[in-house]
Design a protein that fits this description.
seven-stranded mixed β-sheet, alpha/beta, OB fold (Dihydrolipoamide Acetyltransferase, E2P), single chain, binds adenosine-5'-triphosphate, about 25% helix, 2 domains, binds magnesium ion
């Protein structure tokens, strides 16, 4: 296996005359990029940036414009407006082959009539990379992607996971400044997805490649990314570190997209939000007036209390956890606790929250690009 640092240094030396990726400059800037198809506005003006070496995931429901955005960045689709910059250089109107960008599609899109080796080498031949250099890079990516025993096969003699690794190798071998991955795991079964997810992350650590990953799977996004950009209806809703977006979303949409939560109305006084059933929760920023917060089920602390405001109305044993429904007045809350000392249904409980939260914004429009940084 090639030395990962050597691989990375080789990559940068050849192309840019620098010795290592240490800068946190922007590799990619998408500035007000929009796309209208006949009868559809696939993308409203959208802006985002990816730093050098960062692994950023675009997360959003089907049809929200994720692939359209990636296709615009690669140059396969022409934007209706806006600009795409790679390392500060405007590439908006460059043809795909002249962009330092590689993409792996959901469908792999391997050439069926070519061997694995020829699939991997194709891009280098197109770019007229000299033979010795081709051989060197080929050996590197074949080792990195674990394809040593498969190079003479044709794609139809490979499993889905193996084909996916070939598609990755084909993208990596051209040593792109930016690697784009459009739902590369979605055709695979759950077990293989998990394995390849780990392989992809290990690969990212080894090559240090700047990566923009697209998925509609929130657990995939949370487990893989340095940063997540949430999209909905052709626009960026919010972006931030996985834990921040999960625990302290600023948008209702983000709160609900990342799994179960309780949306709770609060009265705000400075950095405290008063809960409707009494008690309060800390806010990460000061505010005033009325608002809403998102409380994850695992953030509610339950304690048996004969004078508490809540009653356990349902308890479902899930193995490590018990999932509870707690009724407070006419409000039903979801809570989750470890299963070692479970509460019985009918138990009266107090409900407190120890984790600081953010106020949710009142509405989605106008908050495009709002950022929730890691705390
Ligand atoms: N060539 C096209 N012509 C017309 N409409 C298109 C075209 N490509 C995409 N669209 C529309 O643009 C919108 C965004 O599509 P896009 O493929 O970017 O979504 P996505 O977020 O990648 O969805 P998925 O998760 O299902 O892949 C959709 O409404 C889609 O129907
Ligand atoms: Mg798509």
């Amino acid at each position: 296996m090639p030395d990962p640092v050597e691989f990375r240094v080789g990559l940068k030396k050849k192309k840019r005359g620098v010795t290592a990726v240490t800068t946190q400059a922007h590799e990619l800037d998408v500035v007000d990029v929009s796309k209208a198809f006949v009868g559809t506005r696939a993308l409203l003006p959208t802006s985002l940036s990816v730093k050098t070496g960062e692994f950023v995931t675009i997360l959003g429901p089907s049809g929200c414009g994720k692939s359209t955005l990636l296709r615009i960045i690669t140059g396969i689709t022409e934007p209706s407006g806006g600009r795409v910059l790679l390392r500060g250089k405007d590439i908006t109107h460059l043809p795909p082959e002249r962009r330092d960008v590689a993409i792996v599609f959901q469908s792999y899109a391997l050439f069926p009539h070519m061997s694995v080796a020829d699939n991997i080498l194709f891009g280098l031949k197109m770019k007229r990379v000299p033979k010795e250099e081709r051989k060197r890079r080929f050996a590197q990516v074949v080792a990195i992607c674990g394809l040593e025993n498969l190079v003479t096969r044709s794609p139809r003699q490979l499993s889905g996971g193996q084909q996916q690794r070939v598609a990755l190798a084909r993208a990596l071998v051209v040593q792109p400044a930016l690697l784009l991955l459009d739902e590369p795991l979605s055709n695979l079964d759950a077990k293989l997805r998990e394995t390849l997810r780990e392989e992809l992350m290990a690969l990212h650590r080894r090559t240090g490649s700047t990566t923009l990953y697209v998925t509609h799977d929130q657990s995939e996004a949370m487990s893989m990314s340095d940063r997540i950009i949430v999209m909905k209806d052709g626009q960026v809703v919010e972006s931030g570190a996985p834990r921040s977006l999960y625990m302290r979303p600023r948008q209702r949409f983000t709160a609900l997209f990342f799994g179960h939560t309780n949306i709770v109305p609060v009265k705000v006084d400075g950095s405290q939000a008063r809960l409707p059933w009494g008690g309060s929760v800390a806010l990460v920023e000061k505010s005033s007036g009325c608002g809403e917060i998102s409380l994850r089920p695992e953030c509610l602390t339950l304690a048996a209390d004969a004078t508490g405001p809540g009653v356990i109305t349902a308890a479902t044993f899930m193995g490590a956890d018990v999932h509870y429904t707690v009724r407070i007045g006419d409000r039903l809350l979801r809570a989750r606790h470890g299963s070692t000392a479970p509460f019985a249904e009918g138990t009266r409980v107090s409900v407190t929250v120890d984790t600081p939260v953010s106020l949710l914004a009142a509405e989605l429009p106008g908050l495009t690009g709002a950022t929730t940084e890691a705390q």
